[in-house]
User: Fold these one by one.
Assistant:
Number 1:
Amino acid sequence: MRSQKNIHMIATNRAVAMIAVAEALAHGIGVVFQRIRDRRGVRPLIGMDDCALKDMGISRADVDRELSKPILWR
């Protein structure tokens, strides 16, 4: 038979584990949304000509490379 102390310890460990999982999920969701926002920032560069991109110090290849990366790229 489990003692009251053991039951309390098991419940506490489960609660801590559930909090850790929730924090990890929240972080993962935040990362995905940040990547989506970053990608939106690159999209306007598609319509720029090569001269305008060069003035900003980037090339068409840089834009294409950024857009070809998966959303969860690190």
Note: Helices lie at 4-42, 50-55, 60-68.
Number 2:
Amino acid sequence: MITCPKLAVLLALVGSASVIGVVGGCSKGTTLVRAPNLYTETDDHPFGDVPADLRTATATVLYATDRAVKIDNGIMGYGVQRSRLISYGLCTVAMGKPGTTWDELVAASTRKASKESLPNGPLPLSLAGIDERGTFASLGGMVEIDGHWVDDPKTIAAATRASEHLHGLLAEQLAKTPRKELFVFVHGYNNSFASAAFRAAQIWHFTGRGGVAMMYSWPAGSTGLLQGYTRDRESSEFAVPHFRMFLKALSTCPEVERINIIGHSRGTDVVISTLRELQIGARAAGKDACKEYKIGQVILAAPDIDLDVAVERMSLDRVGFVPEQLTMYVSPHDKAIGIATWLFNSGRRLGRLNYGDLSSEMQAALKNHPILDVVEVRAKSDRTGHGYFLSSPAALSDVILVLRDNAKPGAANGRPLVDDPEGFWELENDYPFVKQPKPDSK
């Protein structure tokens, strides 16, 4: 018999979806999210400008993963076990049933869901294929040369060849779009490879199909209630050096002008830890990490990170200055982060950060920070309140404005969030069309 209320809520939430990861981590029954307010309230949307070759009811996602290969009924995929090899390639996400047209997809992406606008219901998402193109081997072997221990030249040569092959694949995908940017999604706890691909595909689709859709999928999805989460947590730590290696390879591709990163839930810790290591290395070499690694927008959605840990990384290690712009989404309605707070006995986790949790010095530093913006999402979302960055039409609208337009907060910048002088930027259900009492930019 369960007597702990928090554990009872945990059991109620887990089902076939994630508790602290993306809701709907299981790929079954996944559908296209509701159209963002940005497109449903006006006729202004980017789909008319999509290149002809990309006007299909599918999305190609360039992936990298340190999941071990899993063969299921003769079909190759990636499971929950860890691999020291970083596999990369292309996967195809189908948006709709066989025969769905581009016009039908655009209609579902620009209209409020109703029986009249979507008579057959939301469009289902499915993983139509995986095409692995190569692997990176984790560096680690060392040899003694002239009395010094150095990285094995054979391993370095193999990594160089893998990078060159990856660059060729990137060049092929970038040639299809005038925007020479990457949009890399990093998922959270209890997510499958497929569910991560669905989210990466939708981020790219709703931002206008510019640049290249990408994802880094780490070995999440271990079985067990609490043990599944703790195993996934350590798997996220296992992934950090691999993600760092992959980002370095991406940044050295001549055709890539900018790398944008979207982390969700536990994936935000993978992102922050990786940026920290890149920053430390760049500063030691006297370089600017942002320019060295071409880091543009970084979004941390529903971050599952302890507040004190995050503050130390942001301040002491200067992680907050690695990207061109850093946006963090928090929500007081995020039940999953509330459970994580209880589970780790944290004073506070970032995903449910309250302005009052910060000292006056921290509040002042945040208000004056040139790169970091915190957005409090008060809009309605899914049943756990955790996947709002995509499932909320209001929040998705703001994500689009960040990634598509590189907009800073403020009505004067085309991103009319409410600037609460005693709190964070605020986002309500009708955003971005609500009348704002404070139209000035931050």
Note: Confidence is low (pLDDT under 50) at residues 1-27.
